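User: Working on a comparison across species. This one is DNA-binding transcriptional LysR family regulator from Aureimonas phyllosphaerae. Can you predict its structure so I can line it up against the others?
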Amino acid sequence: MDLKQIRCVLAAAEEMHFGRAARSLDMLPAGLGRQIRLLEEELGIALFARTTRSVVLTDAGRDFVRDARPLVDAADGMVERFRDRGRTVSRVIRLGAIDSAAAGLVPALIHDLHAIDPGLTIQLTEEKSIRLVPKLLSGRLDLAIIRPGAKPVPGLCTRFLLHETAVVALPASHALGNGAVVSISALADVAMIIPERRSRPHSHDLTMKLFEEEGLAPRIAQVAEEKQTILNMVSAGIGAAIVPMWSTRLGVTNVVFRRLEGHPMRGAERLPLAVAWQAHVRDANRDLLLGLLQTNLDRYAVQG
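Assistant: Here's the predicted structure for DNA-binding transcriptional LysR family regulator from Aureimonas phyllosphaerae:
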């Protein structure tokens, strides 16, 4: 018996669904089921009664969950006490951020942190939200700046920060770049490069929604996953793209950025940004950065 197997049982007992339990642990359902079966075989008892439609705890399973939960909590507490001691000594904050936040918000945040505590170091990991969340849950990151999901993630605290303004990225030679703003209707016949939805659902859905609200559909020339790749395609003249304002800092040549025509505070023209961290984990260094982020949020928001 090991802690991984026990965590699988507790997650399944919490969700009463192997698929949802597996997602909460960043596992495949088959892997979670195998861990539970191995534990049941070792104990010689069934912890769950399974049918094709449902999963329920047996009497033994309920007793196991009752006794196992304090053990896991105690183990997590011990790990965090020693991890907190190590962080205090190392003076390193492991920060994750999506690409636009890494280009726009994080440099100002690091500058402000060093102004009040020069000895505290930021170790930055730049990834998409779908890759940052598992790293937070596994303890490989202390906090991350992400696009928040539609539902809360079990085990994480999430705090909304701001909305990034969306802008249009155009090849520098494109006629629409001559104006200060660009309307969605003006993009009706323009080839568009859109983000791949699985990895960038907010950005993908934003583009589709903006066109839909005008009774239009984008003329999709290319789908790409990475923001840098999207802007490089714009630079090559393949098409235009709707991107966050902070993407203007990624330094791609032969690209111009124009605001979308319309009210600047319209919700459809915004991309949500949030900060997330592990719930029930104490970390003085992380809390210092969270406090600094909250204190200066209005100033950061103006830049995005």
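For your comparison, note: Residues 43 and 286 are 40 Å apart (CA to CA).

User: Helpful, thanks.
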